[in-house]
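Quarterly update from the structural biology core.
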Amino acid sequence: MEICKKIVILGAGGLGREIAFVLSEISKQSDRYQILGFIDNNTFLHGKMVNGYPVLGNDSWLLNYSDKINVVICIGNPRVRKQAVDKFSIKKNIIFPNIIADNVKLSDSITMGIGCVICLSTVLTVNISFGNFVLIMSNSVIGHDSFLDDFSTVYPSVTLSGNVSVGKYSEIGVGSKTIQQKSIGQNSIVGAGAVVIKDVPDNCIVVGVPAKPIKLIGNP
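Predicted structure, tokenized:
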């Protein structure tokens, strides 16, 4: 079976441009992907070049595309990312590959679903599991036996110690740290720089050192 090499980047914002760089670095080492350009609903960008790649059009461009194509969804907000997946997953020609930067350090015991993105200089140790459409941004460290559920987002320079679980739709803030054997519930937010030493319940925002709840939030 012929491997589909064509790929588009959904979102021409900061994250999309970072992933374009990741894909370009991968392409230097192999011919795995042929980057066609960006998809973005900002009409001002249509027909323009962003970091060397064209903005092809809006969501309709992709929905009307009939050949097989890879799509990487570059949306940090988990709930908005889920909306994009729901919109495009009805198209059987669309493939959601796992994108892993070339300099990510990871073991052979990592398992993941589809559509995951692992950014530059991340370390994944052993026996870690990811659900679908998990986003790990640059310079993060995920410890042994951790589990990150669907649509969870880990922002840059996060440390999750061993046996940490992160629920669906949760966001782990820049530079935060979570000690071993802790659970972060679904749809929760860990603030930037927080240190989590107790389990975080569902639908909760925690901040500070040590991290403490400050607000309950609604279900996605």
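The radius of gyration is 17 Å.
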